[in-house]
Amino acid sequence: MRVLVQKYGGSSVKDAERIKAVAERVVKAYKDGWSVITVVSAMGDTTDELIAKAKQVNSKPARREMDMLLSTGEQVSIALLAMAIEALGAPVISLTGQQVGILTDDVHTKARIKHVDTKRLQEELNAGRIVIVAGFQGVNSRNDITTLGRGGSDTTAVALAAAIQAEVCEIYTDVDGVYTADPRIVSTARKLTDISYGEMLEMASLGALVLQPRAVEFAAMNQVRLCVRNSYNYHPGTLVQEERQVEKDMLVVGVAHDTNVAKVAILSVPDRPGVAYNIFSRLAVEGINVDMIVQTNKELNVTDMVFSTSRDDVVRVREIAEAVAQDLGAGDVLIDDTVAKISIVGAGMVSNPGVAARMFEALAEEDINIQVISTSEIKVSCLIAEEHIKRAAQALHRKFQLDAVKSMEA
Amino acid sequence: MRVLVQKYGGSSVKDAERIKAVAERVVKAYKDGWSVITVVSAMGDTTDELIAKAKQVNSKPARREMDMLLSTGEQVSIALLAMAIEALGAPVISLTGQQVGILTDDVHTKARIKHVDTKRLQEELNAGRIVIVAGFQGVNSRNDITTLGRGGSDTTAVALAAAIQAEVCEIYTDVDGVYTADPRIVSTARKLTDISYGEMLEMASLGALVLQPRAVEFAAMNQVRLCVRNSYNYHPGTLVQEERQVEKDMLVVGVAHDTNVAKVAILSVPDRPGVAYNIFSRLAVEGINVDMIVQTNKELNVTDMVFSTSRDDVVRVREIAEAVAQDLGAGDVLIDDTVAKISIVGAGMVSNPGVAARMFEALAEEDINIQVISTSEIKVSCLIAEEHIKRAAQALHRKFQLDAVKSMEA
Predict the structure, then answer these.
(1) Which end of chain B is more exposed for a tag (fewer CB within 10 A), N or C?
(2) For B14-128, where are the alpha helices, taking DSSP H only?
(3) Is A16 in Cβ contact with B58 (below 8 Å)?
């Protein structure tokens, strides 16, 4: 049995027409001889509408009840998609997260999958049925419904693919795959034929929103081959796997950017052990993600602590940072939300120390000032003024000849 | 532990304001010392909207998938009601049909409850929580979601009340209780303080749509005390129980009418054994409910077969009746959809043979012609022309002095 897992997001099932189109894709795969498991999200804006309803009755509803509410969105999708497939004459059954055996921990609205009991899934596949699964949801050990957080349907698809040892897990979206840069900003951006897990993880984390980072992590851990494809056409998409095969000569595979960034500076922090812990543990407790962190000693015993965070968290970050500054006897807190992050990603970087330098060169040639730098083994990120982001992306794309590399699909 | 089961229909939870109003009622009962189980239906027109969505992708969807789809309506309601109750500071948890242990047979869209596993329910009540339950739904032995058909939430409430031995099961609606006649037609109609199961069953079946007949039957079988109340006020409602206590002197408790009636006549049917079976078994196979049946021998060896049915089924009934008539060598099929049914109900009737005669007298005094008569131990029904229905109801209400009986609540 060759098993194929597919995942369609909310925009792919937003109305009856799109659901019918997805049904045709699913049936085509089935007729091509695959055992098909299709994971779907809630239709279009359903989740946002449900959240709005909740806010009308309770400004801060219990997370368990939020999960009870939100999980209905995917349940509607699976029933409608199963009906549409049935109308095409193929045998099909829909299953909720509970029915498909997705067991999670107890963290409502952000649960993690602990185990997948594939008994029912295997039965249905053995019976020759296409199985439509509600993404984003599972149950905890008490049989209470949990949800996996934003983008959780990707994780559902990968978890099922891992549990059932699927040949490939296709993630459908409204673009052709993973690009060397955002085509809306860099007109010469090119779709990648393949990319490694590590690179995909960096690209996803850095703002290329085609795949949920957690799903990529899960896929890498379980060696699930992912394929990012467009639900509007039959192009082959981008394969995400252990090592790049087709694009193997590329040093840098992509330029990613993120404008949902704010820079926070706590000035004149006394330079003594435990200060960084003091600041960042308080932010962590509040669930605030901190990205780049830089500490610069400008004078003896005093340091400026600079970090970047999401603009969504600016209000809470200011409160916490000011309280911490006061406790520590530090100076002012400055927040700049006119910055953006530009990054280059490539697994070849680790053995080529010149790559970061070439990035700085490209930005210097454009007279773009770098405010903060952060590096990992396979990426270099720089904070710059948001107004320069487009020029920066174009310059980096040129510098690393990303548009020049011949596509293998041509 | 004194357990109270409440059921609120779709109009009682149609928007955020109504949900908050219901939340207050529930919390009031909880603060009055009850262990409260509240069963809710889908909000307002949700079910119809979901059905419309299904029809867009499949004109005849599989019933299993229909149940998967429709059951989300109640799940949304329970989550929102639980959130609204939580906002009032009371401990609360919502449970789906599956979670509350409602096990049904396999008949999707019209399932019957086979068993209620009260383990989780009992745990939550013992923990001091208000339990909000999704009405209308359960699961079969395969863990597939089933629904109980129109008005199924009433049945859910009664089944839970029976399983947990609740003191009373309150059915909330938008009228004050069960009336001696429809107040829109008979202005002097009076709310009953109490009524017996049998009478309620007849009233419900005859068109007084405050309670699902199946739920009344289930309540009678399990001796669950029902109370029909208004969700917009705190009036005491109508109690449905084994024997009338307050209204015990009433011979007739109510006048019911139903205008969704058509009269079907198959003329000149050969009068031989098996003919009735032949006709009505075919209608039964098609799921058509036949109500009153009359057979009149006007000449030797030939009979006219007359019965009433719902106007919704007229097209299918004509097809079947004409096919049967041809097979049997009978004459024409006549269908009249301008008739209506008027009925009187009262448990005292069985020992008072004069009651039916007084009914006919009242109709004769109004010059209303009776087309078909049917009687049971506790009701008499007559088919008359629909145009006379209002006058008939008023005349019978007067004849049996239903407006004159003093209310015990005054």
Answers:
(1) C
(2) 16-31, 46-57, 63-87, 119-126
(3) no
Q: Between these two residues, B297 and B131, which has the higher pLDDT value? A: B131
A262-336 CATH choice from 3.30.2130.10, 1.10.760.10, 3.40.50.10610, 3.30.465.10: 3.30.2130.10
Asked if A164 and A122 touch (Cβ cutoff 8 Å), the reply is yes
Chain A interface mutation, best of B22, B49, B55, B57, highest count of A Cβ atoms under 10 Å: B57
A381-400 pLDDT tens trace: 999 999 999 999 999 999 99
Measured between beta carbons, which residues in chain B are less than 8 angstroms from residue A56?
A: 16
pLDDT in tens, B139-160: 999 999 999 987 899 999 999 9
Task: Tell which residue, A11, A409, A15, has the closest CA to residue A172.
Answer: A11
pLDDT for residue A207: 65
Residues A127 and A125: their CA atoms lie apart, in Å, by 5
Residue A275 pLDDT class (50, 70, 90 cuts): confident
Put simply, the answer to whether A87 touches B50 (Cβ < 8 Å) is no
B83 vs A99: CB contact, 8 Å cut-off? no
In CATH, which of 3.40.50.720, 3.40.1160.10, 1.10.580.10, 3.50.50.60 is domain B3-173?
Answer: 3.40.1160.10
The number of residues making up chain A comes to: 410
Output the pLDDT for position B103: 98
CA distance B219 to B204: 13
DSSP state of B179: B
State yes or no: pLDDT of B352 exceeds 80: no
Are the CB atoms for A318 and A297 separated by under 8 Å?
no
Q: Where in chain B is the domain with CATH 3.30.2130.10?
A: 255-399
Q: Does B87 touch chain A (CB under 8 A)?
A: yes
ipTM reported for the complex, 2 dp = 0.81
Q: Is A14 on the interface with B (CB under 8 A)?
A: no
B262-293 pLDDT tens trace: 999 999 888 877 788 888 888 888 878 888 88
Report pLDDT for A301. 80
